[in-house]
Every structure is written in structure tokens, then in C-alpha cells.
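Re: that chain you flagged

S.,

Sorry for the slow reply, it's been a week of failed gels. I finally had a moment to sit down with the sequence you sent. For the record, here it is as I used it:
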Amino acid sequence: MVERQSKSLPEAIQEYQRRYQREPPPGFDRWYKMAVEANVTLIDEYDLLMQDLEPFGAISADELHARTAKVSTTQSISRMMVRNNTIKVDQDHHHSQVPIEWLEDFAEFLPDMDLAFNALDEPREIVPHGTLQSSLRACPEKSPGEEYSKSRLARSASFNFEFLENGHQNIWELATIPCPPDSLASDTRYSPPSQPADPNFVRNASFVKDTCQNPFSSMHHGFVVSPDTLYTT
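Prediction finished late last night. Pasting the C-alpha cells below so you have them in one place:
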């Protein structure tokens, strides 16, 4: 993997275009220079980042701005604002200080924007599997035009949410809402053993961390069995 990484900016741009079928974001040249100076090894690897961001492609920029502004009024949601290359937060929290420190080093290159941060050390949003798949199917193949943005903007008025307290109870059914229908967690016929088959070392870390494939967690993972607090929407 290391050997196939780009060795120049033109190579990095070409690889980005090949992988993601789009142009690199503005300022990519400056990012590449900083990455090289920091001795970044895997300079072409954005797959996980792109996978996380992909569902938001179904939402227009105007809609995303409206949702960010609305959710930022919630307790324990910290909004970070970048204005004229200056970073500030409207609900100061110790969890928001770390990303501020990260961003301050290159704030001069950032456009004006708002970022909503979860100020609690627990998940806050649970997306049903079907909803996520619908969003992925709705992602445009190229940058949306004006007509697309206007049609999405109309949805902001109906965007409502409520954070519910789910602490001090088993949250397995809640935690597995995002699981695909063919996963072990979604199979009502599957009954997990009361104990693991054998207490050997982990052989596949990715598999073990996949809640959807490990119903055993429903009875033995402390956070699932009875979290101290859990405010989700």
C-alpha cells in the first residue's frame, strides 16, 4: 500500500479523480504540501472519510446549513463557527477544545462555515438502515444544480428532532436499528450463546467491533446492557 502512494501533487490529483470521480476540494494543493511536510505516509487514502460523508450528498448545502443551525441550539451540542479565518464556539465544552486546536494551525485557509459537535462521549444519532440506504441512492452523481438545491431546501422547515434519554436500560434494540436485514443482530431466530464459544484472542478486529454481527454484546457489553446516560435521536 505504501509503495503505490502518490509521489507528487499531479499524481495525487489524478488518483483522487480516479477513486472518487470528482475534482479534489479547493485548497488541495495546500493540503498536499502540508501533508508532505508532516511526512504523511498514506497520502491517497480517503476511503473511510468519503464513506462517512457520502450520505450527506443527498442533502443540499442550504439544507445542511439549516439543520446544523437547528441542532446547534440543543444542549450538549457545541457549534464551532469559522468567520474570517477565526474559530470560535457558541457552547464552550472541553470536548470542543481539541478540534479547535487542530484547526487553528490552518485556520487561514478555511472558508466561513459552521460545524456541530457532539459534546458528550456517547453516540447521539441513530439512523435506520433503510433511511441510510435511501440517502445513498439519492446522492447525485455530480455536483447538484440549482433546481436540485431548491427542492432540498424546502425540506428544512419540516426537519424536527428530539433527543430522548435511554440510560439505565438495555439498549440493544435501539443500537441495532442501523443494522442491515441480513445481519445476525436483525435475525430474530438467532439466539446468542450465554458465553463465547472460546475465550481466544481476537482474530478479526473489524468483525468483533461490528455490533450488527455480534449479538453476544446484547447481554455482555456494559454500554449496551445499561449505559449511564444515552441521549439519542
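What I noticed first: The first helix runs from residue 9 to 20.

Talk soon,
D.
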